[in-house]
Amino acid sequence: MKANHQNDEDNISDKEAGTSKSKDLNSSSSESESKDDWKRQDPGEILRSDSDEISHKLDRIIRQKTTPQLPGVRGTFTGRLGQEIISDGSKHTDEKGIPVDKPEKEESKVNEKDKEEEEEEEEEEEEADLNCFSNASVPNETSALLYETLASLKSALEFLYTEHKNINLDAVIGTRMVEGQLTVLLERIQSNPENWVVDNNLFINLKELADLAGKISSKAIPYIAALTPYYYQKIGTILQKTFWELDFPSNDFSGDVEVWPYKRGESLHENQSDDCLAEFFGTGKSSNVPCDVSDKCWKKMTKPLYNGYSLTHELFYLEIGEQHGCHAEMELKRLTHNQQPVEKLRETYCANILNEAALIAEQDFPEDRHDLFMEQAALCGMVGYRQFFSSDWLRKMLSWQNKAIGCYHGNPIREWEVEYRKPDSPGSKKGMRKKWKLPSMPPTVVQHVRHKREERILRDGCLSHRTAVAVAALGQYIRYMLEYMAFQAVP
């Protein structure tokens, strides 16, 4: 293009030449950006899409999206897999509030020689981005971490298999999640095998893990039904074989997502959450009609300003309602209460869950937050939010596992140790009136109802719920690493 442009310059005025040159530079720059834009994005950003997007020229789709730095999120992993990205103010926003690169000077004012030097520097930066992955080559590093994660997941599942008579209902939710999510992943791979970096051995490995998770669930359910019949009758529907086959593409947070100030302390008791889940199944106290959602439950389970398990249970509530086919009733409820669409509520919850996960990481992963941290990745990963997945976070998670046994240890949180917010604190009934004037008082321990999901200690001091959320989170890590490897393979 530059040679043709120079020939045209001989026949036009200096002014026209300058204009033509400026246009040509714009065109050249545009083509260069169009061709290489997917390269400039961080590998963490590349993890955004699923197999359907890959089959439709994913590099073109990816470059149309950005991942905004969430307001209030410090140390959020929104960039290169395994590296912590903290906003330094180097991003500008467009009219929609979405971060974009700082605008460059107009091409007509940029010297061509300087422009070429800038492009060379950009190319060098792109090469560095592509070759930098935790100080190792990207494909080899990711592949090694993938197989380490597969081995870790297998070891944890084998432990749960030996304990299938002793694990509780919540643990089987975790194994059903693994089974369902790996099943969805396998179907994606099988439908477009040419778009995935998955050989026959790896495919078989994934299938065996899905089958093992299913076998654990099937063997454990009769014991759960016998030992906790009321609990099983109430919400046992979520243990059905295909219930957790959620199929969401990888996506980004929008620029206008609301992130509220973090405040420690729980707002929901688990029996309240269970009662509201039962309304979806028609097994509640007030109605035997499925999807008959009460205003009381809807308001309780969709309030803003929650944190901790209360917040993850709000997301859990939406996921279960939609999976059980109650989406229309949920949309009607949100319209009645003047709320955003269910999809937007889901995004808002995950944005705030990510904010809290980043704070946990910033505090160097306190042991009593391990369980919550892994639950956060599992639940938001299932609905496509890849920002929870970094190699640093994964390595931390892998380090918490007992390698000899396969389970996860820790100090179980007893019911009398759970911190609840005072009745007038944010997220409580009275506190919602003060939602924009948050008190700085610490959470208060109050009298508790018994927690049916209290952590169960298994043999060798292993924790049932913590091991279950670990396998669910590891299953999500496998998905996003394979998506990342698929993007790296796009020519």
Task: Spell out the key features of this protein.
disordered N terminus, about 500 residues, 18 helices, globular, mainly alpha, about 0% strand
Give a description of the structure.
The protein is mainly alpha-helical. It has a domain at 214-420 and 449-489. Helices cover 54% and strands 1% of the residues. It contains 18 helices and two strands. A two-stranded antiparallel sheet has the order 1-2. Helix 1 packs antiparallel against helix 2, helix 8 runs parallel beside helix 18 and helix 13 packs antiparallel against helix 15 (342-362). It starts with a helix and ends with a helix. The model is unreliable at 1-110, 125-137 and 427-452 (pLDDT under 50). Residues 1-130 are annotated as: Disordered. InterPro entries: DUF4735. Pfam families: DUF4735. Residues 115-129 have a biased composition (Acidic residues). Residues 1-24, 32-62, 89-114 have a biased composition (Basic and acidic residues).
Question: What's the layout of helices and strands?
Answer:
Layout: H1 2-9, H2 14-40, H3 43-46, H4 51-54, H5 58-62, E1 91-93, E2 99-101, H6 112-131, H7 138-162, H8 169-191, H9 200-227, H10 229-235, H11 270-281, H12 295-301, H13 308-323, H14 327-336, H15 342-362, H16 370-382, H17 391-399, H18 464-488
Helix pairs in contact: 1-2, 7-9, 7-18, 8-9, 8-18, 9-10, 11-13, 13-15, 13-16, 15-16, 16-18
Pfam families: DUF4735
Biased composition (Acidic residues): 115-129
Biased composition (Basic and acidic residues): 1-24, 32-62, 89-114
